[in-house]
Amino acid sequence: MTESSTAVDVTCVGDIAFADAQRLLAAHELRLHHVAAGAPIPGSYWGEPEAGIIASDVYVRDDTPVHSMLHEACHLIVLPPERRAQVHTDATDSVPEEDATCYLQIVLAAQLPGVGSERLMADMDTWGYTYRLGSTKAWFEQDAEDARAWLIERGLPVA
Fold first, then answer.
1. Residue 61 in contact with residue 37, Cβ under 8 Å?
2. In the chain, helix, strand, coil percent, each to 5?
3. Is 60 left (phi over 0), alpha (psi -120 to 50) or beta?
4. For residue 80, how many other CB atoms are within 10 A of its CB?
5. By the 8 A CB rule, do 6 and 16 touch?
6. Nearest to 79 by CA among 59, 64, 98, 52
7. Cα distance between the two ends of the chain
8. Is 88 helix (H, G, I), strand (E, B) or coil?
9. 28-82, pLDDT tens digit by residue?
10. Which terminus in the chain has less CB density within 10 A, N or C?
11. Running DSSP on this structure, what letter comes out for residue 54?
């Protein structure tokens, strides 16, 4: 891990190529903004170093966990444009939407060089995401049918 890593051993934005993350989010009509070290992160629901969201903008620092960046971005991706435009800090509308967001962040991690779905799921477990089957991977592979169906129904990626 680089110096940008947080106290918990997870992949952080500073550990990957920022341009790769920008391209991934831009493919979903989102803008990724780099915030200077130590500066407040606009729109951060959980506070620093967690990612922040405002409308179609995602804000991160080098010490922001990649899973946080993807999670907050996916909250925006699952929203219709008229709802996305109204988002500031908190985008969750329902449990099904939250589950779809978690599923989609794992799917998108596979498209992010230097991360991948396996690493992201391990990072999610390390950070403290909890699922009734005991791990993010078990949930994703065995218990996320509803989240997958929610995404498919809306034409969003599931693989």
1. yes
2. 45, 10, 45
3. beta
4. 8
5. no
6. 98
7. 28
8. strand
9. 999 999 999 999 999 999 999 999 999 999 999 999 999 999 999 999 999 988 9
10. C
11. E
